[in-house]
Amino acid sequence: MAERVAAAESSGYTMVEVPPDSSPGMATRLYQHLLNRPALQQWIAEQRLEPATLTFHRDHIEGYANHNGVRSAVRFSLTDNSGWNEVSRTLRPIRELLDPSDQGLPFIGSDDALWLPRQGLGQITAGNLEQTWQVISELEERLALADRLEAELEELPDTARTDWSDHETELSPASSLPRHSQAAVERLQRFVTCPQMVRLLEQEGFAWAGAPFRVSEGRLERLSPVGGWVNLTRYVEAVPELNDELEALAALSVPLGNALYSTPRYDMRQLLDFKGLGSARTVSETRNLVAWLRTALPTPPPLGDYGALLPRDWKPGTLTADDQKHMGTMADIRLRGPLARGFSALSGVTLQALQADPQAHLDRLLDSPDALAFGEQMAGALRWQVGQGANSTLPRTLLQQLVTAAIKLHVDPSMSDKPGEVAGYSIYQPTNMGRSFSQVRRDIERHLQHNKGLEPKLAVLAAQVCLAQAAPEMLVRDVPESVSIGTPAWMELRLGCALADHNAPGTSRMMNEQQVTDLTTLEPVSDAQATLMQLNALKVIADWGVLNGCIRQRSDGEYSSGDIQEAARVFFRQREDVATAFTAASSELPTRKALAIKELLRVLPGITQAELEGMTVHVASAEDRRNLPISEPRTRSLVETYMTGDLAPGKWVLSDDMPAFPAAAKTPYQHARPPQVTEAARARLDTRIRRLPEMDKLLENSVLQHRKKLQDAYATKLKLMFAELPLEDRKLLELGKVELFTLRRETGEIQAKETDALKDASRARHGTLMRVEHGPTVVHFEVFANGKIIKRTDLTDAMELDGVIHREGFPSPHGLVYLPVVRGAQMNLDLDAYANGSHPDPNPAFQAVIVSALGGAFAARELPLSHTPESFVPDTYSSRKTASIVNRIAQDNFYEPTESMLQRASESLPLEKHREARARDHAFLLGFVPFVGAYQEFKQGNISAGLTNLALDVVGVAIGAGSQARALIRSARALVPSRLTQLVTRLKPSAIAVPQVKAGASFSDRAFDFIKQSGLFTSAALNPLDGYPQMINAATKGLVKLPALLAGGAMKWGKTVPHLVTAEEKLRAYLLVAAGQASGAEAPVVTPTAGKAGRYREVDMHATPYNGRWYAIDPRSGAPFGTPLNGFEPTR
Predict the structure, then answer these.
(1) Do 347 and 480 sit in the same domain of this protein?
(2) Are residues 231 and 191 in the same domain?
(3) Owning domain of residue 431
(4) Which of 193-202, 963-972, 1033-1042 is the most confident on average?
(5) Same-domain pairing of 337 and 478
(6) In whole angstroms, what is the distance from residue 605 CA to residue 164 CA?
(7) What's the pTM value of the predicted model, to 2 decimals?
(8) Cα separation of 822 and 808, whole Å?
């Protein structure tokens, strides 16, 4: 192989043919096999890709597509919803093995020779092929298991019970379960064949020849000849010797999926448990496991979160305090001062281009020869060692890590991994409440420029490096602007990042917001796993409480259980309010037709909606039929007749009950005999008609109820809007005097003819003007129903209310008559935005506006005694004053008057007016998106059939179900089903009767619930001396990563919280494979006794002398690595 590489290099060839039987060849053949799988080939064909042009990278694929003869360059990534993320799931592990530096691999057809890029052949670690194959097999087994479970579930209700131990399954060839089970299986076989057991079976009548045994969840069972497993546990428990052995076997079976068979058999429950997913007891729990089985993570970036060399506590292979000082000095010389060189990769790039895609530019900088040379220079100055002799080449990844560490030390020499902070800038400070990620990021860049002296371009990339560790949610891809700091959407994003980065920091940076959020919709498979997520959520809920003013910020990060529980109480109260408001906002306005169908279905049981709409009624009396005007139909739709109020008793009969008309008379002397309706037929319909409410009254009551719910929802939305105002504005609102005003146009009539109805018709209801006065400060806020609040400091402090009366001349038979007319004052306000809900003009022209007070003023209040003006952070959402303000706006200046709603409900408005109203309703609905947990904005497109409450109309544009909006639509369907569908469901009995089972809660539900799920604080109170409180305190500060916390104290926590340690190990192993990594990849390959034992910086370790200095030992190679351990003390 080496000869081929050398020959290709001397000849200038970039590709080398790999012998199939060589070590790299075996890995390449596996890569070739996976490339030519049917699913992947089908995807390539659907995208019209030319296979020969394809290049496969870590997070994307690129090449050429041919659409009807037109070739174009294309690129598909793991985050673009193209399907590449799904079809490449099993390909990514082998791709990473063959191309760890991500130079790109070519496509290899099923009959092609094995050609690979020459430069990457030396980086292939063929010894890891076995582990990679096991990972691929495990991923395939997960997908196959998910498909089978879904097929078994079909359309079963979520509450139906399941028992997957009765379903036998096959294992993948690489499964480790048979290997781990061998000793336990042999012990079970000895147990069931021992004389005492044989006698017991014969005595009880279970001596079935050849029937297998199993230990399942602690029970000893045997397969009956007629099918089904028979529980023998109670018979065995009666014999102490046998019972002791059964208990031992049950303990052995726990890590084997809590099951053990006497023959080579396995069941689906056992396989799920063995994978760390527990045992599903219901259809709902099984669907959750299917979601877990389909969960895939991208391959983690090699540089992680850029903090590998700068841990909080030193460990071998990282930078010591002296190393950091030395590196910081070198970085300052290169990057600061008049002789600063900077990085050549930044010279030809504009600041705007860097800000548009900082990650791509950072990657290019780290790959540049200039940066790599700087990394090599620092490694030499630090005497960094990797291996010995000819094997001491510094890896490219290490050089890049040194460069990023130098940038961080240049930003802040005391740079730590404290979450939420970049060089002294607090990301989650109260002033950032309600701000978008891009706004906060620009602040961080300015902070680095003004306070740390960074050049603007370098500040952009330095912020990227620092945020990867300080606030990874800010680097997630495709996060919409509507996700602002302090919202529940932001909380879910942080929790999702904690899950994605659980084992490999930086993983979330490779994902988009939908993929990250999908992780939080998974339900924990055990209470211990839920507790792990609560530890991750402690810092998040504390930050939310501080941002929203429910708890006071503490400089030391020490928050009590009372603080956390108070924040959780406010959080869930707000979320409940939003859920109620969202339900109301997603409800359709009750229309006359919908109400008519609902009531008719109630009095006519046993018919469907389609049948009802086809039913007609006929005028019952022959005399009435003769006397009706010719314009009046004798036969009408039953629904329409009720809608118009004409469905009165004694007048109608169902057309189906109408007797047939007699044949026409043969001669003019024969009289026609009209059919006579039976009294019974008329009575049947009359009885039902009398049970129907009056339509006009029903419609009015329904509309008023709907309007009241929308007003309450509007008040909730206004509170959310106020809570996202800048901190200084929220202080003004809470402490200052607040006045509300409405705006209207001039009526054009003289004062004497200006009726209340005319004034009301000219009122602009889509906005409210708010004046706030606190001390010498007077500001105005324009509060628009579409979700915008605009601060105005240019309006006059004192406004003329109710217009100005002018006497104007009007012609009359006796000449001009001067009469009083109410005119508006000239104000630079966008009256169209107030009147129609359009986007406010940022530079409105002056126009005549009549301003009127909306009720009395809300009095100012004193600053709380325990606060200073600087420390005061109001809880705006929960404030009584805020509630009073928003309720007055919602009740007295609601954006649609009752009359307009009644007209819409009567369906008497033109189509265009309906579209405007529906568009406004859906815009109102979308305003709740960041607060209900699914924060991806709707995309345009079609919606699943039946969900009519999210479609504008059949000829208009529909709100689509793209990206994360799918989760929101499912939520909306659960909250507010289509009105008629809901009605039919309520009237018809369920097809399946199942026991009620409590629905599971997702990670985002349980992680932040410190009220009902308060086991963490209970355990801390009951175990004050075992370190449990310290673990909670550390998690609340966010100072440690949970895997490192539990792994570092395995001995301690194994005694205190063994269930957490076990849950952590299972979660770690599961997510490692989900990311395409071997679960044992971190295991040392050398004995811990290699080298010389000793201590360095209070750390017990083994070191080896090299070139006159002590070095730590690389656990993988056994060779010296890292910087010299000056001060290492060997054990004597």
Answers:
(1) yes
(2) yes
(3) 300-385+393-484
(4) 193-202
(5) yes
(6) 40
(7) 0.85
(8) 10
